[in-house]
Amino acid sequence: MVMLYHNPVLLFESVDGLTIKEDGIYVDVTFGGGGHSKEILKRLGENGKLFAFDQDSDAIKNSIDDDRFTLIPENFRHIKRFLRFYGVTKVNGILADLGVSSHQFDEAQRGFSTRFDADLDMRMDKSNSLSAYDIINKYNEEKLSNVLFQYGELRNSRVLAKTIVNARIENEIKTSFALKKVLQKFLPKNKEHKILAQIFQAIRIEVNQEIEVLKEFLLQTPDLLEKEGRLIVISYHSLEDRLVKRFIQNGKFEGEAGKDFYGNINVPFKKAGKLIIPTEQEIKENNRARSAKLRVAIKN
Fold this sequence. Notes:
Elements: H1 11-17, E1 25-28, H2 35-43, E2 49-53, H3 57-60, E3 69-72, H4 79-85, E4 91-97, H5 102-106, H6 132-138, H7 141-152, H8 157-170, H9 176-182, H10 192-208, H11 210-224, E5 225-235, H12 238-250, E6 269-271, H13 280-285, E7 293-299
Parallel strand pairs: 1-2, 1-4, 2-3, 4-5
Antiparallel strand pairs: 5-7, 6-7
């Protein structure tokens, strides 16, 4: 069943945020198991269109048989280019559910989860050359430390990197459990899961260039969205959420919002409503929803 692939988080809240027009054009840039896409299609009329993106070949198997639906097997950092290929230059809404799908976490051989002993992989696009193995075994100490500090927010990143580099002189670190064994002294029982999750997050973000991809995607959204078009983003960690929040507020990732000739603030979006988080009931039913944050923006 498709639902086993991924249980969509904040499903109705995110699709409600799109305020769907029956004949509108919408984009789901993180198709996964198709949960958000199916809900969008339920609300579209016969002349509406939905385009979806997913770079994971496993997700392509979940494609929806509907004349209004087109699945593009590419990374959403290329959103403008591939929509243009289909003759689309403006859309009414864009939805992004960031992070890793339940399927990717649960497929042991993908190497995303700390629960399984698997090859160090973590590639969302299996055709990519860079894997978690390369980062752990080939990055120099400084570069590895920077990855762990920036993307895992680990204050002891230097000592972690040094320990990894020293260990791999003896033997290559090939699996998730081998990495865990190398770092065992830094994993006290009461914090083991949390610290491992931060380490794996850092490596995964580097493998998939997730921060760069998010920035490239967000910068394209003002040109793509019609006036009053909606941007919906669900993020799962502070690095992503900060970028989304700043971009909605200021139209950029660093510094203050731009101003026009008369000193008026000139930004592409306005915030719609407050930050939305899952209910206790949703978290109880789907533990992976616990860190989700949903932001809605309207194109000025």
